[in-house]
């Protein structure tokens, strides 16, 4: 869609046209289908990433090497884009990119979540508090403020939550800074507090609920919620709080998937969310469904799924809405390719900066998986804590049977190797 720009030259009115453009913050491999979907709508794709050579740089129309947390650079980039194109939308791939996305949306009057709702979504305790006050089931949570007395907090938490309990930053992503406390040892508690405060000064102590973990995606168009996708998250038995595999679609009964969508819809209403994509993380435990987290973006995993036939329909519906297409919700009435997609991850016992992941983007069958290498530069700061994002390799497969696919993905994960450049 082209927008008109008028000016006069010697008494004559000249009409210029500007192409629609979309700002995409983050260029990791799972975003492949989303970028391709936007491009196929005839929209200029403008990609940013803190890496100078992200996986999707080559397929984007324009690229800028900007860290997602650099708000000043994003404001300058927004002005630059607006001078050349008709900016119709902005999208953050993860929570840390949301402040930049909301700032761009506010400056250029783009439909998305505003700063206030984004602040609530990104502050886990505020989200839990709103849910609790509106009878939306979440784990019992206690806020540990930055100036709280640690000894007193430890005693109060043990009394109220019992053991084990979980400590995590108020704001972080990818399970970073999360520790499960199993004993009354105050040293272990203090150590976990220090870890969490590497990400935020305020910390949440939360009851540990055991069960199965699941996700659903939704899309808000003028406050109307449209259900999109569903997933099952399978744990890595070697490490706590680390997802090993994600199966899509969910194998839960339809009524349970509908319940998750209904909870996410109700949560969006009480948080006054109006326009944009959202993801809900849930845990099923003893017949109850707990909302663990709500995020203002689609789940990254589905966007790489080969079950979508190369089109990420929720993103297509969202961008079509931004283009002013009538009834964009009709796009969501799609039938995905039958079968099951899966993401399998492999971590070493160390973490560091990934230089490059070698992976065939045209994988259609698990048997075609080749060795995947994660490389470290000599002198990198390697720490012993597990990083679920710095040391992650994604391998996608397709199957009509979940059980056979899981075994195939476990076998494929063994192909992942970590090497150090000398």
Q: What's this, in brief?
A:
By secondary structure, this protein is α+β, with helices and mostly antiparallel strands.
Verbal overview:
- The protein is of the alpha+beta class and 422 residues long.
- Among the domains are: 2-110, Rossmann fold, CATH 3.40.50.20; 140-207, ATP-grasp fold, A domain (Dna Ligase, domain 1, 2-Layer Sandwich), CATH 3.30.1490; 338-422, no CATH class.
- The protein is globular, with a radius of gyration of 22 Å.
- The longest helix has 17 residues, at 254-270.
- Helices cover 27% and strands 28% of the residues.
- Helix 2 packs across helix 3 (98-107) and helix 3 (98-107) packs antiparallel against helix 4.
- The chain has helices at residues 32-40, 71-84, 98-107, 115-122, 124-133, 150-161, 186-196, 254-270, 313-322, 402-413, and strands at residues 2-9, 12-25, 44-48, 62-64, 86-92, 141-144, 165-169, 179-181, 203-207, 212-221, 224-235, 243-248, 276-285, 288-295, 340-344, 372-376, 395-399, 416-420.
- Mean pLDDT is 80; it is low at 1-8, 347-354 and 382-391.
- The strands form 4 sheets. It has a 7-stranded antiparallel beta sheet with strand order 14-13-10-11-12-15-17.
- The relative contact order is 0.11.
């Amino acid at each position: 869609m082209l927008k008109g720009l008028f000016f006069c030259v010697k008494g004559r009115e000249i009409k210029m046209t500007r192409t629609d453009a979309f700002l995409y913050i983050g260029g990791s491999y799972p975003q492949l289908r989303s970028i391709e979907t936007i491009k196929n709508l005839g929209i200029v794709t403008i990609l940013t990433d803190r890496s100078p050579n992200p996986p999707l740089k080559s397929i984007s129309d324009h690229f800028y090497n900007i860290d997602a947390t650099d708000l000043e650079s994003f404001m300058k980039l927004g002005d630059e884009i607006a001078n050349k194109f008709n900016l119709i939308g902005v999208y953050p791939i993860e929570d840390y990119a949301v402040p930049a996305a909301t700032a761009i949306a506010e400056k250029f009057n783009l439909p998305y979540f505003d700063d206030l709702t984004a602040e609530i979504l990104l502050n886990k305790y505020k989200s839990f508090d709103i849910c609790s006050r509106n009878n939306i089931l979440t784990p019992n949570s206690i806020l540990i403020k930055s100036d709280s007395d640690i000894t007193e907090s430890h005693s109060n938490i043990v009394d109220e939550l019992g053991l084990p309990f979980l400590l995590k930053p108020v704001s972080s992503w990818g399970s970073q800074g999360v520790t499960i406390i199993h004993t009354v040892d105050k040293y272990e508690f203090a150590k976990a507090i220090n870890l969490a405060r590497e990400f935020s000064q305020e910390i949440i102590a939360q009851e540990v609920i055991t069960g199965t973990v699941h996700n659903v995606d939704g899309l808000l168009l003028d406050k109307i919620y449209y259900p999109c996708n569903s997933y099952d998250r399978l744990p890595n038995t070697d490490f706590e709080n680390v997802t090993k595999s994600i199966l899509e679609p969910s194998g839960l009964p339809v009524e349970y998937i509908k319940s998750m969508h209904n909870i996410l819809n109700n949560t969006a209403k009480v948080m006054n969310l109006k326009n944009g994509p959202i993801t809900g993380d849930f845990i099923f435990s003893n017949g109850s469904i707990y909302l663990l987290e709500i995020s203002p973006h689609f789940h990254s995993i589905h966007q790489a799924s080969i079950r979508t036939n190369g089109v990420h329909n929720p993103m297509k519906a969202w961008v079509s809405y931004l283009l002013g297409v009538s009834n964009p919700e009709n796009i969501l009435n799609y039938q995905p390719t039958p079968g099951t997609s899966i993401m399998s991850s492999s971590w070493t016992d160390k973490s560091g900066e990934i230089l490059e992941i070698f992976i065939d983007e045209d994988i259609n069958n698990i048997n075609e998986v080749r060795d995947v290498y994660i490389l470290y530069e000599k002198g990198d700061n390697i720490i012993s804590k597990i990083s679920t994002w710095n040391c992650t390799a994604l391998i996608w497969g397709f199957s009509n049977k979940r059980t056979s696919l899981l075994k195939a993905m476990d076998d494929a994960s063994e192909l992942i190797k970590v090497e150090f450049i000398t």
